[in-house]
Amino acid sequence: MPEVFSLAVIKPHDGMREECLRVLRDLYALLGRKHYSRDLLYEDARDHRRLINFRYWSSEEAREEAHEDPDVHRLWAELGRLCEVEQVYERLEEVPQG
Questions:
Q1: Which of 11, 12, 14, 71 has minimal Cβ neighbours within 10 Å of its Cβ?
Q2: Residue 81 sits in which domain range?
């Protein structure tokens, strides 16, 4: 099954960066442990307040399961008070190179 690629731009609220990063780490560990996704987190080099989350869902089914998982929802709700999600791309598709 092919992975599903998603991207999110996250901006922690003032004074909440470290707590936001802690919750993101917890979320990534949970998603990995349940085999939903693998995640990479980057910081925008031009605006260090912005974090860029690259998520590779294991499959469309895994993505759907995660969206129904109460443990995932709990962490997403916690993030909701710590940061603003400025942009989300739920499903990106690779452009063929030839």
A1: 14
A2: 10-91
